[in-house]
Amino acid sequence: MIHSSSTVELADDLAADYAPHKRSFWRALVASPSGLIGLVVVAVLILAALLAPVIAPYDPLRMAAGPRLQPPSLNHLMGTDDFGRDVISRIIYGARLTLQIGVIAVGISLTAGLLLGLVAGYSSGWTERILMRLVDVLFSFTEIVIALACLAIFGVGLTNAMIAIGIASIPFYARVTHSVVLVEKGKPYFEAAVAAGAGHMRLIFLHLLPNVVPTLIVIGTLGVSTAILAAAGLSFLGLGAQPPQPEWGFMLSSSRDLISRAPWMMIFPGLAIAITVLGFNLLGDGIREALDPRQKER
Prior knowledge:
Blueprint: H1 5-18, H2 25-31, H3 33-50, H4 52-55, H5 87-123, H6 125-139, H7 143-154, H8 158-185, H9 188-195, H10 200-236, H11 248-255, H12 264-291, H13 293-296
Helix pairs in contact: 1-9, 2-12, 3-5, 3-12, 5-6, 5-8, 5-10, 6-8, 7-8, 8-10, 10-11, 10-12, 11-12
């Protein structure tokens, strides 16, 4: 059967109707209290990471920047650690590592999971069964077990920890992508595109992908907080960041024996992790609300 190009373009217009409208996205995000708070927290984190050499009062690796285990004071707002290093400087520089962890780990899992889920959902048949059964096998293990197995192969270190966390989260993103693709394939705009004779590339990149990406943006933003917590946990166990890296999880680990003498060494890195995780969670909720068409109708 030969189909005219105008028929295919009509199917493309139907796809656009189902795709989320981006014109009022930022307005809806700022109007959401959770989205606004999350956006501010994440923006402060990014600015701290970019401007760390400017705003940090000391070199984060400089020993004897002040007296050892000095409580918070005007010279050292968050005190010093057992090597005399300035705690606030290490926390500011730690923001860089935190962003790297989130971006790299989520980037690995999101990219691989998107490809697996998209191929499996679109192709159907044996390809879908094989790919999704492999995903189910990985799903039978918890993410921390997969991450520990990867570290056992790659070795300890922050870079390997980020890769391990990314690999461990691939099944989750693949499963979500696969589910969304199956839903989109059953909608009228996709069936119209198939009936109009649209090619595989057009179906995937023009019809499916634009409608899958918004969901992945939301879960990817939420996944950053999960990756940060996982990396902090691995560093706390000595499997992630290594000395003298100013990573917040490692700072918690190195100060656990001094909690009674210098509680600020654990309080401030712990607060940094908690606020950052909360910020990304709130931002993810705000993005979800901004992309939800039901919110726009109210």
